[in-house]
Amino acid sequence: MEQINTTGLRRYICGVKLTKLQQLQYQQGDYIYLKNMRKTNGELFSCYVYKDKNGNPNFSNINIQEIMWMQKEKPQQLLKSYGGVELTLSQQINFRAGKTIFLKGVKKDGETEEKNIFLTKLPNDEVKIVERITTPKIDVEEIKKISIRDYLSSLGYQPQKPKEHEVWFYSPFRNERTPSFKVDTSKNTFKDFGDGSGGSIIDLVMALHNVDFKQAIKALSEQTNLPIIQPQPSLSQQQNAPKVIVTKETDLKNKALLDYLDERCIDIDVAQKFCREIHYRIDGDENEKEYFAIGFKNNSGGWELRNPYFKNCTSKDVTYIKGDRNAYQDACVFEGFMDALSYLSDFFEGQIFLNKDIIVLNSVSLLDENNTTLIEKLSSYNSIQAYLDNDARGQKCTEKLKQICDKNNNSFLDKSDLYKGYNDYNEFRVAKKKEKQIRDVKPSSNKIKSKPKNTPKIRR
Predict the structure, then answer these.
(1) Is 369 inside a domain boundary?
(2) Do residue 151 and residue 178 come from a single domain?
(3) Residue of 40, 10, 45, 13 whose CA lies nearest to 24
(4) Which helix (H) or strand (E) holds 190?
(5) Where are the beta strands (DSSP E) in 289-399?
(6) Cβ atoms within 10 A of the Cβ of 82, count?
(7) How far is residue 82's CA from residue 119's CA, in Å, rounded to a whole number?
(8) Could you say which of 3, 231, 299, 446 would form a disulfide bridge with 156 (CB–CB 3.0 to 4.6 Å)?
């Protein structure tokens, strides 16, 4: 029987996470309909997407109009239903184009059992079943006994910190350098400290494959009938990830780094006060080539490193910046140091004066109940203002901060509405600068100007 290739699946398009079925359809070149995709300017849009010959997303609405016309004028040319299952508009588009479609709950004539099948159209318009999926009955409690550790290993995720009753993995949901995904082998449960999720193997399969409870039960009972997410190389190779070795620390003066900060709309005086120029090399590099980056120091003495082509760290920890005068014990919390520098750049007026403490998490995964040092520090403030990202992880972290404040009867303000429609504070600041440049450009006249005026530069 013909099998479907599940390697190299694409997980995201314009910020929207694809279901496992959509990943499979997209890989085969099918049209998939995605809602609330985000353009680079923050605008949301929805439409049909398919993979072009170069493997890149192509956005089109043409086929919708064609099918709508055929539904009205030539309905006999469309497959509208099969085995008692009505085809969606998207399925009609793909089937007519000769693509494979997936149908659930099909019951053919003379059969009593409902089945999930893949269908494709042959050149002579004959309908062909590509693959059948059957679901044997199994007890839910028995399914929960399937080892999470073994299941993750079967997908290519290898344990990093095995202990007596627990083992740590690099999270299968994101790229990371420190394992934050814990499996309790005695209870056979998991806890993802990056986003706070956890549960049984059923919960893991539901999240990993973006399916409901019933579909997860079916997948586990058949030992993986769902398309498998292929481990990203950066995850599977993390155990042997190259180490960053700092070779020199100087004042921040490199022109390339200053230009990069200028592009990110960071005030240079602000950056030079809180950042350093770090020279480093990669351990194991035979050529021992030296690189340089903007360095932002954390409380463990490690560095968050950034340049236009590199984003890494020597170690991961929170950064505390003490305010110059903070009698009211207030703090502003940021996810990354570029957002903190953007905030400070907005309020810079000739000199840098802080009337609040600044806390940069450097990773939302560090805001965890087991990080008692950070929890105690946050609990000591009378007021906290959160400037975290507007994505799901940032908002979940914001909710955790609010719970800490509520527990201690402290004031809490979620400031993310200031940059609503943008992912973070820095993205908002860059967009506003571009808007200002457009407004400041005078309307063109009939006179030819030999020297056009320069667009305004950021304050340094």
Answers:
(1) yes
(2) yes
(3) 10
(4) strand 189-192
(5) 291-297, 303-307, 310-313, 319-321, 330-334, 357-360, 383-387
(6) 18
(7) 9
(8) 231
Tokens of 217: 């039960």
Contact 246, 53 (CB under 8 A): no
Q: Is 386 exposed, middle or buried (0-12, 13-18, 19+ CB in 10 A)?
A: buried
Here the CATH number for the domain that contains residue 358 is 3.40.50
Which region, left, alpha or beta, applies to residue 135 given φ > 0 means left and ψ of -120 to 50 means alpha?
Answer: beta
In a domain, 367, yes or no: yes
Find out whether 48 and 61 touch, Cβ atoms under 8 Å: yes
Domain count, the chain: 3
Q: Are residues 404 and 381 in the same domain?
A: yes
Are the CB atoms for 352 and 270 separated by under 8 Å? yes
- For 95-172, strand residue ranges (E) read 101-106, 115-121, 127-133, 166-169
Structure tokens at 120: 């494709």
* Residue 422 counted as domain residue: yes
Domain-terminating residue out of 203, 238, 273: 238
Q: Which run of H or E residues covers position 44? A: strand 44-51
Q: Which of 212, 238, 264 is the last residue of a domain?
A: 238
Q: Which residue range is the domain that position 263 belongs to?
A: 242-435
In-domain check, residue 40: yes
Q: H helices then E strands: how many in the chain?
A: 14, 24
| DSSP state at residue 366 | G
Place of tokens 């609503």: 420
Do both 227 and 349 map to the same domain? no
